[in-house]
Amino acid sequence: MAKYRLTVNGSEKTVDVDPSTPLLWVLREELKMTGTKYGCGISACGACTVHVDGVATRSCVVPVSLIGKREIVTIEGVASDPVGRVVQSAWVEKDVVQCGYCQSGQIMSAVALLKATPNPTDTNIEESMGGNLCRCATYVRIREAIASASRQIKGAA
Amino acid sequence: MQRAVKTELNRRSFIQLTTAATGGLLISLYLDKPLLNAQQPPPPKVYPPDAFVHVRRDGHVVITVNRLEFGQGVQTSLPMILADEMDADWSQVIAELAPAADVYKDPLFGIQMVGGSGSIAHSFQQYRELGAKTRAMLVAEAADRWKVTQDQCRTENSVVYGPGNRSARYADLADDAAKKPVPQNVKLKNASEFRIIGKRVPRLDSHSKCDGSQKFGLDLDLPGMKIALVAHPPVFGGRVKSIDDRDARSLDGVRDVFEIPLAKGSAVAVVADRFWTAKQARDRLKIDWDLSGLEHADTVQLLAKYKQLAATDGNVAINRGDAKAMDQIPPANRIVAEYEFPFLAHAPMEPLNATVKFEGDKAEAWVPSQFQTMDQAVIAEVLGLKPDKVTFHTEFAGGGFGRRATTDSHIPREAALIAKRFRGTPVKLIWSREDDVRGGYYRPMHVHRVEIGIGRDGMPVAWRHVVVGQSLLAGTPFAMMIKDGVDETAVEGTKDTSYEIPNFRVTAHHPTVNVPVLWWRSVGHTHNAFVMETLVDELATRAKADPIAYRQKLLKADAKKLRSVLELLDQKSGWRKTLPRGRAFGVACHESFDTAVACAVEVSIENKRPRIHRATVAVNCGLAVNPLTVESQFQGGLGFGLTQLVVKGAITLKDGHIEQRNFDGYAPPYIMEVPMTVDVHIVPSTEPPTGCGEPPVPVISPAVVNALSKLTGKRYRTLPLKTV
Predict the structure, then answer these.
(1) Which residues 306-335 in chain B show a CB within 8 A of chain A?
(2) In principle, which of B5, B278, B334, B678 could form an S-S bond with B635, CB 3.0–4.6 Å?
(3) Which residue(s) pair with B351 in the sheet?
């Protein structure tokens, strides 16, 4: 076991865990932040996506020992970001969710996409969202919500 | 409304309504065997409104949903129905999932469950009557207070209005209204009076699923809770010979390692404080398995065996007309086609789980369950309790598609077996994704062999069809539905086709294979619709006919729902006439669970894979209670159906071992593999509502493949689609 100081959604947290523990399980079980989901554990489905220093990251394969001082943002904190707020409200406006289990990860991937590429092409969308599995296949509305969020971000700029 | 009230909803009227609205499968479930188990009490004859509606003093109307919510939107749609008849203020409605209890059993199935696309179809009338009775009691209370007649009162948005500008909020009437007698008969609204039903109402669970606050079964966190993982045998039915758990137990936080019995064979449970500890401990176990005497299923060998069987006549599902009519057709006018379908895993996004706390004389369970009644009974049986001593909470589920409706309740059973050793401590069993992919309960593998004799007019004269695949129902409480050696779920969509084929014979073989199988969203329609709709398309192509017009000609005169959707599709898919080069149009239609669907797709080939640029869908589901949800189910259901076509859409076995491990080997469709847009058009209807969960699934794969055939001239009969 080892102690780690993490910055999660702007606040400092200390955890005492096995160094190999993936960030996902630190968030879920130590910090009780269950919005970040376990889907596969091998970075193949994207349900566990969080931002690490702004980069969309599969938290299921990143050991907590590698995080260091990097800032972590999860679905619980993404609304404090203007793009995050726009994306969440676009998701609600388009009634995207079905079972909803993958949507934290979908939203985190979409926020990272739109921050880097406010006006994404279909190819940009497929590249950024192409690793986020949705078994309910809400993909059509995910595309619509990204388009809607993109319009709002451009309108605000 | 506080007091238990006595009422007798007219159950006969449920049955009449649903008889009119649903197909033979559901009806026979009720009529032939209303109960799965003689110990189960029948569904209640009394539906007390207070079990379903609670008007809070702050004005909120809490409506209880007698179903699991796992994406299908029933947590919004059922309250819409009740709130509309009640004239409740929709902005104040809160929905809650019901625990396991007799009062929440499906009025038709007689157990508490989600399945057969029946949530709205079976509970529409029930929720309307509950809403209307609640409203009547509130009006009766207001009328008494004002000393006016009930006829002088009207209701709107949770307020009763009376003569002389009098008004009273439901919240202020509710406590006294609950003491009123529940009316026997209430007048329901005419469709023209609906204010919520039929509107595009956004989901109630949208916000909580977009900000991370929605709790699913896997998110449950209870004081002192332990996490359990189970090491299952590498071949189905294997049993533990010996366990070396020294390395596993050396980890900090491991609480116990022990063998548990399975329905067939045994397994090793690891219990720890945290998931990661439990997983590491499980990885360190050295287990010697006894795999002797077990069939080591192998999909290559199974395929060869199935093909041999398909060449022979099976048990007769239907035999219409003259079986020898085929002999009159010259070989040049015959099509002989053989189809192969793999095992498929459901792979819902939320891994399977169940949490159980055993306290000696009672227990509590938290399960994202499609089969509450049976899951509760199994937990009780394992713990030596009566079912009513197990408080059973229905947790939100991250998808299911049939996987959370097992007839042996094996997930809650494992959880209960483990929790039994930890009295007073809640234990959450988690099946990792690897456990899920390798754990069985798949859509069965199938082979179909079809011979069609074509008449001079290009229409089929004779049709001989053999289906080979494991029975879903054999060995389950539903086995009584196997008739004359034919499992209806294996031939649904073929046997009962709406196409007019004068000489028609469908037979089935159900080999026994050591692989557990389970219904997979839309069940037998997944493979039967693919076979029927690709062959009918091939017939249309040979006849040089428009694929929609050909289907309209071939349909029976009384196939009204299918005719309505083909006509609507014809109008809405006008884009097919102006397709750019390299793109083709494909169509399919199918009726399942009493809902008819026609689908058109625009497809090109990119990197040797189908690229689906758009899909247009026409649907007839009777009255669409929430058209926004219907649209969602169809947009998503098409994507789910494409699990059949994706490259890694197959579970295979070699020498008894599953060859896939996780989403790297078994990969359902990602965003680029589904239609980029889906337009959904609903046939206007005031007929009773029929299901929308499963009917989207069967049509998409044949529609896509029919388009590919136009582009390449090839026929695609082996799934998954490895090459185009």
Answers:
(1) none
(2) B678
(3) none
- Architecture, CATH, for domain B217-292+352-430: 2-Layer Sandwich (3.30)
- A10 vs chain B: nearest CA distance in angstroms? 17
The C-alpha atoms of residue B11 and residue A16 are separated, in whole angstroms, by 58
Q: Which of A1, A100, A136 sits opposite B252 (nearest CB)?
A: A1
Note whether B11-208 and B312-344+442-712 share their fold.
yes
Closest-CA distance of chain A to residue B472, Å: 23
pLDDT in tens, B73-96: 999 999 999 999 999 999 999 999
pLDDT in tens, B258-308: 999 999 999 999 999 999 999 999 999 999 999 999 999 999 999 999 999
Tell me the CATH number for domain B312-344+442-712.
3.30.365.10
What residue segments make up the domains of chain B, in order of their start? 11-208, 217-292+352-430, 312-344+442-712
Domain ranges of chain A: 2-73, 78-156
In chain B, which residues have their Cβ closer than 8 Å to the Cβ of A36? 212
- Name the least confident of B22-36, B83-97, B371-385: B22-36
What does the DSSP 8-state code read for residue B499?
B
From chain A, the residues in CB contact with B219 under 8 A are 28, 34
Strand, helix or coil for residue B515: coil
Our CA angle for B438, B375, B18, nearest 5°, is: 105
Q: What is the mean pLDDT of each run of 10 residues along chain A (157 residues)?
A: 97 97 98 98 98 98 98 98 98 98 98 98 98 98 98 85
Residue A29, amino acid? E
Closest CB from A28, A41, A140 relative to B432:
A41
Q: Where are the alpha helices (DSSP H) in B354-395?
A: 372-383
Does B662 touch chain A if contact means CB atoms closer than 8 Å?
Answer: yes
Q: Are B627 and B400 contacting, i.e. CB atoms less than 8 angstroms apart?
A: no
Q: In angstroms, what separates the C-alpha of A69 from chain B's closest C-alpha? A: 23
CATH topology of domain A2-73: Ubiquitin-like (UB roll) (3.10.20)
CATH of A78-156, one of 1.10.150.120, 3.30.450.20, 3.30.479.30, 3.20.20.70: 1.10.150.120
ipTM above 0.90, yes or no: yes
Nearest residue of chain B to residue A41 (CA atoms): B433
Indicate which of A17, A87, A136, A146 best probes the interface with B, i.e. most B CBs within 10 Å of its own CB.
A136
The answer to whether B252 contacts chain A (CB < 8 Å) is yes
Establish if B336 touches chain A: CB-CB under 8 angstroms.
Answer: no
**Residue B21 clears pLDDT 50, i.e. is over it:** no
**Record: fold of B11-208:** Aldehyde Oxidoreductase; domain 4 (3.30.365)
Overall pTM > 0.90: yes
Residue for token pair 């640029």: B613
